[in-house]
Amino acid sequence: MKQEKLIRKFDRQADMYEKNSNNPTLSTWRKKIIKDASGRVLEVGIGTGANFFHYDKSKVEEVIGVDFSFEMIKRAEQAARANQLPAKFIQQDLDNLYLESNSVDSIVSTLTVCGYPDPITTLNKYNDWCREDGKLLFMEHSLSSNSFLSVTQKVVDPLCKKIAGCHCNRDIINLIDKSDLQIEKVERYWSGILCLIWAKPKK
User: What domains can you pick out in the chain, each with its CATH number?
Assistant: First the structure.
């Protein structure tokens, strides 16, 4: 029942996500990380397809978009058609998603790790699904490197979780370091709140 309420929350937020998909600052960061995706791409928490404009279609064989929200996927399908991007969609909670080991070349996650009930377990699934020579590309919000901002994030986290369905107090770098993935490069913005992370699987 709790998960069903969360799904309904994201269904209701689909219009807002779609309107915000062209945020110029976020688009700059999306482009910087998404352009490195190639081959068979798994994009988790596809949302309304805000990343689709930034894929290099000459390098991408197919994008597999996963989201538990029907309304999000409906808009993502429209975005894929508008950008002439080869894509298929799976409406599924990531915790229940099954993919074969070593079956994708790239995994893209933008602003999704904040919502996972057990983020390290989910990140370890990525390690299993991604091919040995593959890549994992993250654009995530994280605990700020500024002490005042990080304390504020911790204080407002319960409210953020209730309203938006995500945690704003997670240290994304630390979480990935604790997982089976290996970080290759990190860029941090907005006092460390926004992180671009290039990683690879450990096999």
Answer: 2-201 (3.40.50.150)
